[in-house]
Amino acid sequence: MTSNASAAPPSLMPLITGFMVSRLVYLAAELGIADHIAAGSVTASALAEKTATHAPSLHRMLRALCAYGVFEEPAPGTFSLNALGAQLRSGTPGTLRNFARFFGDQRIWRCLGEIEHSIRTGETGMQRAFGVSTFQWLSDHPAEAAIFNAAMADVTRQIARLAIAAYDFSPFRVILDVGGGNGTFLAEVLRAAPSATGMLFDLPAGLRQARETLAAVGVADRCELFEGDFFEAVPAGADLILLKRVVHDWDDDSASRILRRCRAVAARHTKLLLIERAMPARMTASPANQRAAALDIRMLTSAGGLERTEDQYRALLRNAGFSAERTFVLPAPSETSIIEAAAH
């Protein structure tokens, strides 16, 4: 019998080679593999014809993904969908296809390739690799921006459903979503608060598909669009201000500027909801912490922001003139908290 003392330690090898799997998942999303095999098992040769790829090489890629549990191989050379791979399907509840396409594309890949520079200097890999900020790059590349917006919308729908269950939006008259992008979150909130009107505020590039999004949910007639830069000013007149996963995109100085612009238009009765993933005060080896850490590293190398603990978010709010009052921790899979604050 082998004692625990002599048992082999866990292998570091899966972490060393993990970048390969990430890239394969991206390519499976980009090629739409899950959509092609959703109806049943398909051979690698048939998939190669549908995806205009090299059949022997595609077979090797799919075989590798089966080894990691993304797809299944019920018979040699034939591939089928499972619960994990189903998350790469298009337009389904809980889909992560657009997120995989965004997270694994060449831009993020190149930014991560500059991680040593980021660690040594604190500068983003984005600036070193491309010479511009993430948001400027997305503004200049509408096709890639559409994938980014779709990815954010997919995740936002999950957060919106859980946020509406946890927080009562019905008492508010005018709800302002600062940096709200295409309006996915605000649209769901307005649907849950039928007596409220909405104000959607973002840069022109962020608002590109907003009218279609609002119309699809049936709230376009209750929502006004505002173009602008939240570092300069935000629209006045709301009794609820939403900041959903906006502050984490920025360093402390920039985040404070955004919050101060919100404070400038907040009345005494105005509430502000800061909706962010809260980092744990101490990291442990767990899937949830790994996801949080991965997002934080992307912020370091790409956007230039950072993930923060709840105490750090509360400090930002306090320094900008808000008092954090309540925190709502949303259940999985969102891994998100709502910090409710009031102007003081």
Structure write-up:
It is a single chain. With 344 residues, the protein is an alpha/beta fold. The chain has two domains: 13-89, Orthogonal Bundle (Arc Repressor Mutant, subunit A), CATH 1.10.10; 155-343, Vaccinia Virus protein VP39 (Rossmann fold, 3-Layer(aba) Sandwich). The protein is 47% helix and 16% strand. The chain is built from 16 helices and twelve strands. The protein has helices at residues 13-16, 18-31, 33-36, 44-51, 55-67, 97-103, 106-113, 115-121, 125-130, 134-140, 142-166, 184-192, 210-217, 252-264, 287-303, 310-319; strands spanning 42-43, 72-75, 78-80, 174-178, 197-202, 223-227, 240-244, 271-276, 278-279, 308-309, 322-329, 337-343. The protein has a seven-stranded mixed beta sheet, sandwiched between helices. It has a three-stranded antiparallel beta sheet with strand order 1-3-2. Strand 9, helix 15 (287-303) and strand 10 (308-309) form a beta-alpha-beta unit. The chain is globular, with a radius of gyration of 22 Å. The mean pLDDT is 94.
List keywords for this structure.
alpha/beta; globular; Arc Repressor Mutant, subunit A; single chain; Rossmann fold; seven-stranded mixed beta sheet; 344 residues; 16 helices; 2 domains; three-stranded antiparallel beta sheet
